[in-house]
Amino acid sequence: MNCCLFFFLSPFLFIQIASIKCTDGLHNVISLHTLPTADSVIQVNDLKVATYDKMRIPSCKNGKPELSFPGFLKIIDGEITVKDDITIDFPILSLSAEHNSFFIGEVCKDGKSENPFVDDEYWYVV
């Protein structure tokens, strides 16, 4: 009896397991757009961002992207336009960035540049 019950329920178990899958670049992608009527200094157009947890594993919940802190965001596609100068008084968000390359590696960490050609001012946001 238990054997027959297992085979009867196995398609349902497979569906449940498949529905919680998190495929990188598919289930963990957030799309961002600036509203056409918005008159903001920073505008985004078709920006696609992938979400990752602190171990750099794609971050999803129920097949949808999940933002986790600490965690990582990876810009996949789109444009960010800054229309005017921005005065930075103090940072409220510091960024870390690294290039997927052995030669370049970490570009900045916690808002401080690790590259002599790039100033610190590019790695924090007011």
Question: Could you describe the 3D structure shown?
Answer:
- With 126 residues, the protein is of the alpha+beta class.
- The chain folds into two domains: 20-85, no CATH class; 87-126, no CATH class.
- Helices cover 14% and strands 35% of the residues.
- It has one helix at 2-19, and strands at 29-32, 42-53, 60-61, 64-65, 71-82, 93-94, 97-98, 106-109, 112-113, 124-125.
- The strands form four sheets. The chain has a three-stranded antiparallel beta sheet with strand order 1-2-5, with no helix packed on it. A three-stranded antiparallel beta sheet has the order 7-8-9, with no helix packed on it.
- A hairpin with a 7-residue loop joins strand 7 (97-98) and strand 8.
- Keywords: Signal.
Describe the structure concisely.
The chain has 126 residues and is of the alpha+beta class.
Percent of residues in beta strands? 25-35%
Q: What's the domain count?
A: 2
Going by helix content, strand content and strand pairing, the class is alpha+beta
Trace the largest sheet across and list its strands.
1-2-5
First-last Cα distance? 65 Å
Biggest β-sheet description: 3 strands, antiparallel
**Segments where pLDDT lies below 50 for 5+ residues?**
1-19
Mean pLDDT rating: 75
* Count of beta strands: 10
Helix content estimate: 10-25%
Tally of contiguous helical segments? 1
If you compute it from the alpha carbons, what radius of gyration comes out, rounded to the nearest whole angstrom? 21 Å
Order of helices and strands: HEEEEEEEEEE
| General shape | globular
